[in-house]
Amino acid sequence: MKVTNVKTFTVDAFRTNWVFVKVYTDEGIDGVGEGTLEYKEKALIGAMEHIAEYLIGKNPLEIEKHWHMLYRDAYWRGGAVLMSALSAVETALWDILGKYLNTPVYQLLGGKVNERVRIYANGWFSGAKTPQEFAKKAKEAVERGITALKWDPFGKSYMNLSNQDLTNALHCVSEVRRAVGNDVDLMIEGHGRFNIPTAIKIAQELLPFNPMFFEEPVPPDNLDALKAVKEKSPIPLAAGERLYTRWDYNTFFAQMPADYIQPDVSHAGGIMELKKIAAIAESKYIPFAPHNPSGPVANAATLQLAACCPNFCILEIMYSDVDYRKNLTNENLVFENGYIHIPQKPGIGIEINEQECLKHPYQPHTLRHYTGMLTEIRPPKTTFYF
After folding, report:
1. What is the C-alpha to C-alpha distance for residues 83 and 47, in angstroms, rounded to an integer?
2. Which one of 32, 60, 233, 276 has the lowest number of neighbouring Cβ atoms within 10 Å?
3. Which residue in 50, 171, 191, 365 is the catalytic one?
4. What domain range is 40 assigned to?
5. Same domain membership, residue 213 and residue 243
């Protein structure tokens, strides 16, 4: 079997652009992956062109070999662009191997530990602007079976947070907690943008609301800063969505600066790399809670990891999305009582519709907490997709 082509499909998803990668072979078995890199999609596409030059003509079943060749031969190792491109291709190669052997990828990685995985919802707050509106949206999500909710209540604050802005954020958290009760887990998102004293102050003020974790309280490029926050935080911290490969995580594990790890299958090196990172975390009794706010292909790949990692804890899911998501792939998630069941199809269990993808070409977007809006303004047509 030989690779004959590699194509990228960049699909406007309103808040970002999903970047799907498809690898074609001479035996008619194709594989899909996702390297969605928010707000740097054009650079990702360029990186994919370089990877395609190497991969075409190679045997797609030699996954470890290709991963190491592509990583070794990149002079500028690591970083979001290279690793997102490599992650997408690696996932597509696993998809090909699973289809070739007519088995789900999780079976190739040791078999199922979990039949289903608990989820937490992101994006449930679509359209909310006031604390009361957030509370109403949260209650609606819980009534649909969601048992854990994540959001960022801090507006456009960067590094510092005024007393008034902190009061506003805590009011929002308080209203959501009051609306959903104590049985629902809350995750508070920091988006990696506070300094050490501000992050510590926020963590201390969040304690009465009993959050499951405070995510990425400081920027990701200084683990000493994250460790300084952890030492004074009364609540658990989660981090790692912007760390790449087991080598970045080797430094993380040496310092133990957070309580949950959040590598992203679209950025950190792909399926096997996350499996390796999760295994190290397992030996240190650290829960594995992957970052997963991207598109349906990344979600399908992450579900394969959810199936086979013993320390898999909880999965991030976008609660609502553009209404045409259902046309882009054959995604068919089974949701029940706060859990998603692991799909049983060969490979990663999903196919993209190329023609539908082409109907929604790239559009530029801005990360919402740069704009000062408390929440993203959604297009008129959105849908709950599970």
Report:
1. 9
2. 276
3. 191
4. 3-103
5. yes
